[in-house]
Write a structure and sequence with these properties.
about 240 residues; 9 helices
Length: about 240
């Protein structure tokens, strides 16, 4: 009876865990969508590798969302195969997240250089590629920035250098000649790279907290699933 009661408890914990895990999946989906929307224009002007990051978070959230249902079904049906598969998939996801966290830390400086290269490339194509031009304008307005590092970056672009101008999206106040002979008094002084980095630093604590919470519950889920596997394999009644 003690073992049966213990297995009932484990089965209940597996259900509770999967509910929490499902919430974590929803949280990742929300973070992925938020990052995609908030950094939409920054991602347009950056490389494909940088723009895929919010999508990767979103996909991971969807995978976790469905795995949690898989775990519930395995526990409910007391299927050794399904619970084992659930534990294996959960372990793989945990290892992938650890690898992604390590890669993110190791290549954090490369992310900055990729973003900077994307901004410069977009500035060089300004006025030639309409979607890219609109993305740069919206980025500069949303982040109250001008250029990649500062407003003087535009003076290195030939079409702006000859007239000593900057895009009108750099203007603090949109007046007729606000973009001619730019100065910190008339246009945004800081570069967009600084603005994007500031946004990322502001939100990184939220992302880190969610990631740590998910990792903690994943470890609990693996432990509970292994205990339930042992109970099912031993032939104990857990209903």
């Amino acid at each position: 009876m003690a073992v049966e009661g213990g297995m009932k408890c484990v089965k209940f914990l597996v259900f509770v865990f999967n509910f929490i895990f499902w919430v974590c999946g929803v949280a990742l989906i929300a973070i992925g969508i938020y990052a995609q929307v908030a950094l939409d224009k920054a991602l347009v002007v950056s490389s494909a590798s940088a723009s895929s990051s919010p999508v990767a978070i979103l996909v991971l959230g969807v995978i976790i969302f469905f795995i949690s249902f898989f775990g519930c079904c395995g526990a409910w049906k007391e299927s050794y195969c399904m619970v084992t598969t659930f534990a294996v998939l959960l372990s793989i996801i945990f290892l992938v997240e650890i690898a992604a966290a390590i890669a993110g830390y190791v290549f954090k400086d490369k992310v900055r250089s990729v973003l900077e290269d994307g901004l410069w490339d977009a500035m060089r194509k300004y006025g030639e590629d309409e979607p890219l031009t609109e993305a740069v304008d919206e980025l500069q307005r949303d982040f109250a920035c001008c250029g990649a590092n500062n407003y003087t970056d535009w003076s290195t672009i030939e079409r702006f250098k000859v007239n000593d101008t900057v895009p009108r999206s750099c203007c603090r106040v949109n007046t007729t000649f606000c973009n001619v002979h730019p100065s910190p008094a008339t246009v945004y002084e800081k570069g967009c790279l600084q603005g994007i980095e500031a946004w990322m630093k502001k939100n990184i604590l939220t992302v880190a907290a969610v990631a740590l919470g998910i990792a903690f519950f994943e470890i609990l889920g693996i432990i509970f699933a292994c205990c339930l596997m042992k109970g099912i394999r031993s032939g104990y009644e857990v209903m």
